[in-house]
Amino acid sequence: MAGEPTKGAPGSPFRVSIAPGAMEATLLVTQPEGGLPFSPELLEQALAALQRSGVTQGLDQAAVEEAVRFPGTPVVVAQGQAPEKGDDSRLEWHVDPRPTGLPLIMENERVDFHSLNLVQNVAKDQILVTKIPATRGTPGVNVEGRALEPTAGRDMPLPGGQNVYADPEGMRLFASVAGHVVIHGNRVSVLPVFEIKGNVDYSTGDVHFVGTVVVRGNVTSGFTVEAEEDIEVHGYVDAGFLQAGGNIHVRSGIQGAGRGSVKAAGNISARYVENAVVEAGGDVLVSDAIMHSRVSAGGKVAVTGNRGLIVGGTVRADQEVSAAVIGANLATATEVEVGANPALRDELRSTQAALVQTEQSLERATSATRMLKELEQRGEPLPVEKKEALLKLVRSTYHLMGERETLTQRLLKLEEELEARKSGRVRVTDTIHPGVKVTIGRSSYFVYDPLTHTRLVLNEAGDVVLATL
User: Within this chain, do residues 185 and 259 fall inside the same structural domain, yes or no?
Assistant: First the structure.
């Protein structure tokens, strides 16, 4: 047994020593003076002596033979196998736990500083982390055949935080909302609002987010913020690009510099809009002024402040455009369109342009067909390439005729819809200046003399007329 340093029958030349813990056994062969010649029988006797001493595992027969061949020298002839500790549980991330915020290096080795990948968007119910469970470990055995239990690996809990949930087994972590993955210490959270504490610039790159974006600073020139929900900018937008699936609120102004644009499926509000493209599915609400911009609203456009100015550019709304002042003393060209959704007017214009182009293509194809027939009738041979080109035009004739019919029908429907819209109005609480063109539905009104405190609406005949506020 373990703890007995040496074992062996009286008179036996074999002495077996078992180390404490029975993880090692040593054989010492003694012999009388004159020696004992090695023989297979002597080797068998040594093995039997080890067996009698309780050494049953981890025997090294070659080491036993060495001890027998070289008596007088103790030889380690058996070793136990220590248990192996189990592996600790570990986390397998399905998102990047430590985004670098480094710019994207493109194939041509140029560096895109607009793509810093600071935002990790995840969808609702998207898997974030999988826990690989701890293992029990591998049992060991000592030289006496006694099993040695391993130490199991430590279990690591899932790093739960805000807006996440685990499966019933506690092995996987999911997002309970769509948002941005944030990791603090040993907690992972999904935040539906992505907050930028400063400006959107080279320190952040462009921002594309599945929730709401809050910018505490400004959106600087050339940078983009896209959100599937709302965008709130506490500063100004300077030739930047904003697009939201919800509303956009800019506490200061929108300065487009002829390049930037702000588009939202919902409402857009700002202190001022200058040299910008602004498109809202709902209302556009401005407190001070809209200057030299292209503004479209599926609802209304209202400039609500005391100054309340609209000057230059084009302002379009489905329901109403209202301001204190429209135009300027210098007869600055300003267009106001109401009484139809701007998207409807855009489709009407694009359909008209497409119909004109189709008519021109059809005319060329028809002329080519006529030319080909005339040449055939005269019996004049044509070069192969010219004949193939003419035949291609001929074959396109029927396709163009069908396309013309489709566009014509769509144009008629759009014109009918526009004709039926008579609810739009323009309200001016102070002055509308010469140089302003007001279009309601399909009718237009050109302002040649200043008008004060008035409304422009359609009468029953479909003409733009003036009415009191």
Answer: no
Query: In angstroms, rounded to a whole number, what is the distance separating the alpha carbons of residues 4 and 17?
Result: 7
Mode of pairing for the β-strands spanning 334-338 and 309-317: parallel
3-state class percentages of the chain: helix first, strand second, coil last, to nearest 5: 20, 35, 40
Q: What is d(CA 31, CA 229) in angstroms, rounded to the nearest whole number?
A: 93
What's the pLDDT score for residue 254?
A: 96
Q: Which tokens in the block code for residue 446?
A: 């050109």
Residue 7 forms part of a structural domain: no
How far is it, in rounded angstroms, from Cα 224 to Cα 205? 8
In sequence order, the β-bridge partners of residue 146 are none
- Nearest in space to 273 (alpha carbons), one of 265, 418, 288, 264: 288
Nearest to 83 by CA among 137, 126, 9: 137
Residue carrying structure tokens 């009191």: 468
Give the chain's mean pLDDT: 86
- 450 dihedral zone (left: phi>0; alpha: psi -120 to 50; beta): beta
128, 93 Cβ separation under 8 angstroms: yes
**Domain-embedded: residue 2:** no
For 35, residues 6+ apart whose C-beta sits below 8 A from its C-beta are: 71
| Rounded CA separation 311/76 (Å) | 101
Q: Dihedral sign, CA of 43, 45, 46, 50?
A: positive
110 alpha carbon, distance to own chain's centre:
22
Query: Where in the sequence is the domain holding 253, given as residue range(s)?
Result: 194-323+330-335
Could you tell me if 310 and 293 are in contact, meaning their C-beta atoms sit under 8 angstroms apart? Answer: no
Task: Give yes or no: residues 60 and 32 share one domain.
Answer: yes
- The pLDDT of residue 111 is 46
The number of distinct structural domains making up the chain is: 5
147 versus 409: which is more confidently predicted?
147
Task: Evaluate whether 432 touches 450 at the Cβ level (below 8 Å).
Answer: yes
Query: Beta-carbon neighbour count of residue 303 at 10 Å?
Result: 26
What number is the average pLDDT over the span 251-270? 93
Looking at the structure, do residues 276 and 352 belong to the same domain, yes or no? no
Domain co-membership, 238 together with 296: yes
Contact at 8 Å (CB) between 61 and 83? no
Q: How far apart are CA 61 and CA 342, in angstroms?
A: 94
95 and 166 inside one domain: yes
> For residue range 175-224, what is the model confidence (pLDDT) as tens digits?
999 998 888 877 899 999 999 999 999 888 899 999 999 999 999 999 99
* 372 and 258 within one domain: no
Among residues 79, 110, 130, which one ends one of the domains? 79
Do residues 204 and 186 both lie within one domain? no
Q: What is the pLDDT of residue 24?
A: 95
